[in-house]
Amino acid sequence: MNTPPPAPAQRASDEFRLTTRTPARCSLSMRGLVRRALIRAVFPLLLLAPSAAPAASAERDLEAASDKETDVQLPPFPQDENLIPFIVSANTDNKFLIDGESLSVSPDRVLRFTLVIVSSAGAQTISYEAMRCATAERRAYAFGRSDRTWSKARSDQWTRIQESTVNRHYAALFGDYFCAIGVTLRDAEDARRILRAGGDRSRLRP
Known about the structure:
- A hairpin with a 4-residue loop joins strand 4 (about 125-130) and strand 5.
- About 40% of the residues lie in helices and about 20% in strands.
- The longest helix has about 40 residues, at about 10-50.
- The protein is globular and about 40 Å long.
- The protein has helices at about 10-50, 50-70, 170-180, 190-195; strands spanning about 85, 95-105, 110-120, 125-130, 135-145, 150, 160.
- The chain has two domains: about 10-50; about 70-205, Lipocalin (Beta Barrel).
- It has about 210 residues and is an alpha+beta fold.
């Protein structure tokens, strides 16, 4: 038996439903494409994101170390009987000495010490400083006044130690005494020994 064709009103209603569903299906399809494109773009970034963690951690460590450095306690003013001379160069008339009582050595090979420089005219320059063997850097914490008190250094940033005529004593302390290749100073006594021995490593304790 043949089915009669739908009435005009019913056919129009069916066509309306079809036309209203088609855009919805297209919209869903487009949203899926956009979502997949976003995933492709963002996923590689998510893989790289954890690499930022070590950098942030290292930065926090440096900040913490810097905070500790600012809390360094200044030592008593140096006494003449505690001064240990060290050789810098035959090309200078200045005398260079380290206050043995001010010496300290940290586990990360940062040495702190009072440095005394005496010019040929007898003028003294006294400073409390640090030397970091791992990075070949130095910094000054304070300078001595004539009334035997300390004045905080205006710039206390770490600076690179360089081999030059000016400030040659830092290169000498680094390369010949405190941070010489093959030498690891364990404590202040090791530092005093190598200064008194003129850099002779054999004088260090076994």
